[in-house]
């Protein structure tokens, strides 16, 4: 599965794991930058998926209104 193919739920779960590691201070200093960069990628991906979903929902609702 490529990074682009990850589901919203999987991305959110991975973000929660990273947040937990940071909160528990269980990330080595050498890995911190890598984890933060990955978290940033995941946040961007989640935002894009939410935006796309919002657009699709608006489109469907609009179509429903036209057919009434």
How many E strands? 0
Strand content: under 5%
Count up the helices: 2
Number of domains: 1
Q: Secondary-structure element sequence?
A: HH
Helical fraction: over 70%
- Structural class call reads mainly alpha
Mean pLDDT: 91
Shape category: rod-shaped
**Gyration radius over CA:** 17 Å
- Report low-confidence residues grouped into runs of 5 or more: none
- Termini Cα gap: 41 Å
Give the biggest sheet.
Answer: none
Helix/strand layout:
Elements: H1 8-23, H2 29-67
Helix pairs in contact: 1-2
Structural summary, described in words:
By secondary structure, the protein is mostly helical. It has one domain (3-67). It is built from 2 helices and no strands. The chain has helices at residues 8-23, 29-67. Helix 1 packs antiparallel against helix 2 (29-67). It is rod-shaped.
In a few lines, what is going on in this structure?
By secondary structure, the protein is mainly α. Helices cover 81% and strands 0% of the residues.
Please tag this protein with its features:
mainly alpha; 68 residues; single chain
